[in-house]
Amino acid sequence: MNEKFKIPHTLILLLSMMVVAYLATWLVPQGFFEMVTLENGREAVVAGTYALANEQIRLSPMDFLVAIPRSLAAAQDIIFFVFIVGGVLAIARSTGTIDALIGRLLERFGHKPHLLIFMVVFTFALASGAIGTAGEYIPFVLILVGLCKAMRLDAMTAVGMVVTGYGIGYGVSAFSPFTVMVAQQIAGIPLYSGIELRLAIFVPFVLIGFHHVWRYAKKVQADPSASMTFGLPCPLSNTPETEYPQLNLRHKLILFGLVATIAGSVWGISQQGWYLYELGAMFILWGIFTAIVGQLDADTAANKFIEGVQELATTAILIGIARGIALIMEDGQILHSLVYAMSTPLSHLGAELAAVGMFIMQTLLNLFIPSGSGQAYVTMPLMAPVGDLIGVNRQIAVLAYQFGDGFSNMIIPTNAVLMGIIGMAGVPYHLWFKFCYPLIIKLMLAASVVLVLAVVFDYGADVQPTVKANSEQTL
Question: What does the alpha-carbon distance between residue 166 and residue 121 come to, in Å, rounded to a whole number?
Answer without folding.
Answer: 8
